From TrEMBL:
GO annotation, cellular component aspect: plasma membrane
Keywords: ATP-binding, Cell inner membrane, Cell membrane, Membrane, Nucleotide-binding, Transmembrane, Transmembrane helix, Transport
Transmembrane segments: 33-54, 74-99, 148-167, 173-192, 257-277, 283-301
Alphabetical list of CDD domains matching this protein: ABC_6TM_exporters
Protein name: Multidrug ABC transporter permease
Keyword match Transport: yes
Family matches, as InterPro entries: AAA+_ATPase, ABC1_TM_dom, ABC1_TM_sf, ABC_transporter-like_ATP-bd, P-loop_NTPase, Type_1_exporter
Coarse class of the protein's main subcellular location: membrane
Native source organism of the sequence: Gordonia spumicola
Subcellular location: Cell membrane
SMART domains per the UniProt record, alphabetical: AAA (SM00382)
Taxonomic superkingdom: Bacteria
Amino acid sequence: MTIRPIHDRLPVADWRRTVAHLVAHLRRHRARLAVVVVAMTASGAFGLVTPRLLGSIVDVVAHDGDAADVLTRAGLMALAAVACAVCAGAGIAVAASVFEAVLADLREEMLATVLRLPVARVEAAGSGDVLSRATDDVDKVGEAIGTALPSMLMAQAGVVVTVIGLAAIDWRFLLVAVVTAPLYIVTARMYIRRAPAVYAAERTAAADRAHHVLGPVQGLPTVRAFDLGGPLSRRIDRHSWAVVRRSMQATVLQNKLAGRLNLGEFIGMTVILLVGFMLVGDGVVTVGATTAAMLFFLALFDPIGQLMYVLDDLQSGAAALGRIVGVIDMPDGRADDQPETTGDDGSGLVARNICFGYTPEHPILHDVSVTVGAGEHVALVGMSGAGKSTLATILAGVHRADEGAVTLGGTSVLDIGESVRARRVALLTQEVHVFSGTLRDDLAMARPEADDDRVWQALEKVGAAQWARGLDDGLETVVGEHGHQVDAMVAQQLALARIDLLDPDVVIVDEATADAGSAGAGVLEESAAAVLAGRSALIIAHRLSQAASADRIVHLGRGRVVEEGSHAELVAVGGRYSEIWAAWAKNR
């Protein structure tokens, strides 16, 4: 089994574009963001009441004050604590509603963009790159938006309010900010400078690992058949260790951040104690006021630590968001001036002098010409690796030929809008998918306006109506991963029913009955024949009985057309197809 290398990753947005995209989303929620700022500022202010009153209690006790004064202050502290918690809770709740809405918008934007991208572009990037952005990166952004951003807002409010509180006690206590601020600023700049590259490399390594894990999983039967588990496991090990190494680099960066934070805390406490000692000695402030100042600074540990540590989540989230925005900003490959309709001169689907290779060094198709006339069924046969599936993807518009041309009804497929081409040329492979949702929704994806009668008609045509009527809820039955499980044969029948609902001009069938087994293959061949009747079809034949019933057969060998003609003509010629047919007929 060969896993094609990643040649052309999906783009990553730069920092400026990423921030601009996020800000554009946040602007839609200005009013609620204002509520968040007010609530968190109020929470920070109420949070200062407790240390200030504790300092006052120290003075009351030092001067043999009345116990009632202590109890009064204790009651005020309790009320302040409740008010602080209420404001913080309200701010966090509103912030969560805003940021979750933004995250949902980002997720929907990315999914919509990916679904509009040309399949060839997605394949060139690798399924792992797309999947990691849609899952891991979205999760990272969710963590940053749902946790780091609210924490940052609360920490910023706490720092500002606490600094004002220190100044209210005595402006000289602000010396602690003069001494510690440069250290924190240098630490933050060091982190911001190094972290994006570290986290971007970590996300890229995770995408590579996903790519190399998905390939063997998707081709598990091939892996087992050719005993490829060992080599592929070692490849996965290499890419997994690459993720570990990148994660360790991020951890080292985090530890450096923690060490500098601890140093700043030590220096700040020392400055507060020295300033307080001198001010108390000069009679400028009381011991209680100095105690409050120290408690204020201790209260800064948490918001400053949050500010620094959320940089970690924010940098990781920003790296992930850049990968998501990079996809969102991609053009969908469908130019506005592409026609929504196209003429048809009756020539069908024609490929002329096609040359193609996934890499320039390894060409697969060499000067291949194939015509599928209007209403004609053409079978494509050949050994594994001959280029049959590759030719099918080019005819379906999934890949673009390096040389040669493909026309549909006399019009170049490059001049036809992708959405139009997708409606006129359908590709059906053996790797079909049952979408999660009701059976009606699964089928109506091909034609959303189809009513129940039309859906049942399609099911009747492919021979799946009796199965569908046997379901508890009929068309309302939930199928897919979390619903009624559908076997391989029924899944293919549902795919054929979608083709019938789509009603394309040309259907390309790529060994769609290969996984159904002998009994199932006969049923599926009947289903396919019913759907293909009256339509042009290119059939990549898994069984030569499919080729024998076709109007014409094209035999591919090593990426070239070696024989072409009807079944009777090729058997009469006595060439390679005749030999294959004789061997197959003898052993069936």
